[in-house]
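Supplementary Methods. Inverse-folding protocol.

Structures were first reduced to a discrete structure-token string of length 388. This string, shown here, constituted the complete conditioning input.
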């Protein structure tokens, strides 16, 4: 470890709070060829080792067709990488004795048990967080409930509860614990349960109990740019062969009600700090959960059936734990903790090797296959250059 890195790490350990450190060496020269090869609007990445960001970069534009260069402090959307934050909040409540890993949906929502699908009553918190509840993958019925929530009055926790109440009447697609099915509804159940136990909205909880203690100053929720401004990379989609930018607004992101499943955003630097906290097993502080609880979150619960047509940002192979998956790749000797996240307009990947206290994050402001190919290529390139 370099002397300055050792000093930063030592100060972090003494204070019990994560050091923001610097940006490390520039990755721009490495990222630029990938940007040009895959024709994405922007790319950002950061590498963290032993809790210190050793390299980072950001290239491209915030908005296709415009010369608005991205920076290393720019906010990128994380999509389903948010799920690990929701699982962490659940782990905090487990540590506090307010929740159990085997708490059932019927126990969490007793007033709904009478109208609830019989098998859903037995689904546990662990099964919700590992997508083994028997809840089917996102479908038309789920989308209809999301759309309907936009016309309802109330705070976001009330809207989520309304979706839970209606969805609970539906039959499960499989026996609980029997198989993996990636479903955002699992995290709405879990997020709504966390809200009612903690007495605050999920948005307040993730801000107060995750973003602030970890010093993730750029972290926020919803579209990464401000309404009426291009103050962050806009999300993009490809329509009829042309790339279209999405300004902040109702269609710029997932509905806010889906927060526990995927509305966080932050810079590549802060995303790396989040990854580094996990890579170090939380040992550098802050001690957000007990070591055994963090190990539980990282432990794999189910094998993911291979799915060739899985949308970018959703698990397609490997194994899945609680908000975090695991993947074996040819460019790493050890299996890596991994998750992808997308609102179809952005894509973010997180790769963590706890054995080496190493992690990297890669992000782009477009969704779809070209984004997936770009991030996979960058991750492999950076891992080979920086992991040893």
């Amino acid at each position: 470890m370099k002397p300055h890195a050792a000093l930063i790490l030592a100060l972090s350990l003494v204070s019990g709070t994560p050091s923001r450190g610097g940006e490390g060496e520039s990755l721009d020269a490495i990222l630029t060829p990938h940007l040009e090869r895959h024709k994405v609007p922007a790319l950002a990445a950061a590498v963290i080792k032993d809790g210190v960001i050793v390299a980072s970069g950001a290239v491209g534009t915030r908005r296709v067709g415009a010369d608005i260069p991205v920076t290393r402090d720019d906010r990128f959307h994380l999509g389903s990488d948010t799920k690990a934050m929701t699982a962490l909040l659940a782990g905090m409540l487990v540590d506090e004795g307010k929740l159990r890993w085997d708490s059932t949906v019927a126990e969490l929502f007793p007033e709904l048990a009478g109208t609830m699908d019989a098998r859903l009553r037995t689904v546990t918190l662990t099964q919700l967080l590992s997508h083994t509840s028997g809840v089917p993958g996102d479908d038309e019925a789920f989308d209809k409930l999301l759309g309907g929530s936009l016309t309802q009055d109330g705070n976001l926790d009330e809207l989520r509860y309304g979706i839970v109440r209606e969805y609970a009447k539906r039959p499960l697609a499989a026996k609980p614990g029997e198989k993996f099915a990636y479903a955002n509804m699992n995290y709405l159940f879990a997020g709504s349960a966390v809200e009612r136990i903690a007495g605050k909205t999920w948005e307040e909880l993730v801000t107060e109990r995750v973003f602030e203690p970890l010093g993730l100053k750029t972290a926020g929720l919803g579209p990464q740019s401000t309404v009426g401004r291009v103050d962050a990379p806009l999300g993009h989609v490809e329509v009829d062969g042309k790339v279209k930018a999405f300004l902040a607004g109702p269609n710029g992101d997932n509905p806010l009600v889906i927060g526990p499943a995927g509305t966080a955003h932050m810079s590549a630097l802060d995303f790396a700090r989040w990854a580094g906290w996990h890579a170090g097993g939380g040992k550098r502080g802050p001690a957000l959960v007990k070591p055994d609880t963090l190990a539980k979150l990282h432990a794999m619960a189910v094998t993911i059936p291979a799915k060739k047509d899985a949308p970018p940002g959703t698990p397609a192979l490997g194994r899945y734990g609680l908000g975090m998956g695991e993947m074996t790749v040819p460019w790493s000797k050890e299996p890596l903790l991994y998750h992808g996240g997308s609102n179809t307009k952005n894509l973010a990947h997180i790769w963590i090797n706890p054995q080496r206290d190493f992690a990297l994050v890669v992000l782009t402001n477009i969704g779809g296959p070209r984004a997936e190919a770009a991030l996979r290529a960058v991750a492999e390139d950076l891992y080979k250059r920086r992991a040893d």
